[in-house]
């Protein structure tokens, strides 16, 4: 275990205890909130080598409250693609794509099985991905995708990217502040960073669920951002936010009128427990 005492945004070492919760292996992890800026994060986490065990095949192949029901299935792939296509439209991706030269380069950090890498490849991008799950990387490589196994912070790239994405990834990172700084350096001027992550704070459907909220998965999820704390961290790294939306409620049964109404409200009135952010390197 490593201590997570110093806030990555404001540097404060003063935190307020929120609650403790068991992981899938029975270890208890404490959620705290920075007294200086309100960032929420785990007080202690397994180090970057130890945490790899939480991303073995079972995380992606067995339905639990912290993993996927066969991430590699066609149905799950279709649902993931449906969501990121909606996200792309909301973030103005297709207009951005049209503005680029014929040679377009992208990097998906935390790419899992490479579904987004493949999507951009089929659109003519020189698309790359990186992930710490050996199972996912092997699946992507077997499908002829340019995906690397390892820690993004340890990789050097010979050319800069037009687009870097962190789809449902930043909450998993030990050092999101360092990843954002490196992403800024790895982007071309005018390049875009797209982030999706679970959202805390504000008028938010997460408030209905307390500690049983679907994204309070410890220790896989380490950081929990509000729009304000994520914006502050992005600005610190040099980025300017150009787009923001929320979505998702997890209220009611999937397909029911209640779920559809709640999901509509989540997006229309910025009440969602997920958020997407577009940030530009000016």
Tell me about this structure:
By secondary structure, this protein is of the alpha/beta class. The chain contains eight helices and 13 strands.
Write the layout of secondary structure elements.
Layout: E1 2-3, E2 15-22, E3 28-34, E4 40-42, E5 44-45, H1 57-61, H2 74-90, H3 93-98, E6 105-109, H4 115-122, E7 126-131, H5 134-142, E8 147-149, E9 161-167, H6 176-186, E10 187-198, E11 223-224, H7 227-236, E12 240-247, H8 257-268, E13 274-280
Parallel strand pairs: 6-7, 6-9, 7-8, 9-10
Antiparallel strand pairs: 1-5, 2-3, 3-4, 4-11, 10-13, 12-13
By CATH, the topology is Rossmann fold
Distance, first to last CA = 38 Å
Side by side, the strands of the main sheet go 8-7-6-9-10-13-12
How many helices? The count is 8
CATH A-level architecture: 3-Layer(aba) Sandwich
CATH superfamily: Vaccinia Virus protein VP39
Largest sheet: 7 strands, mixed
Class of secondary structure makeup: alpha/beta
For the record, the CATH class is Alpha Beta
Total number of distinct structural domains:
1
